Amino acid sequence: MSNKQEKMTAFGQFRILKIGTKYIQAELIGSVKNYQAQLVKNAVLSDIEIGATIFLRVNDQSTQNRYGTKVQFEPIELLTDQAEIEKYILADRKRVAEIYIQAAQENLDKGWYSGDAIDKALFFSASHPTYKPINIELRHRRLRGETDFALDFRATLPH
Length: 159
Description:
CATH superfamily of the largest domain: Nucleic acid-binding proteins
Shape: elongated
Strand content: 25-35%
Number of domains: 2
CATH architecture of the largest domain: Beta Barrel
Strand order of the largest sheet: 1-2-3-7-4
Number of helices: 3
Radius of gyration: 21 Å
């Protein structure tokens, strides 16, 4: 997160690795990849134990410089209600799905019928109920494109 960008409130699933005096070292469990992060130690995290997996609403205090990004969050609320946790997880999946769907549609428009963006778009759109029709459309476009490419390629072969 750049210093110039607006800081935002976010949701995260964290696995506690180490508890220090000022910060708690944790692993942010992401949709695609896990990240090392620091949680500011405060009253919200007073009863946390090493090895616990927790769900938090946090303020993003990450900073970026020429050496990399320091991923740091200030906990606002510890989430324990399963329905609320599922709501946040579904919203996170939707956000990730939108990114990959847009990239996949751009790739298909360019004539690229395979690749990481398309595979991840199919994966994330399948796991979100809103994107089931888009998932089906992506699958059909991919199959049509591969079939059209194969037919065009065969036509160029000498008989």
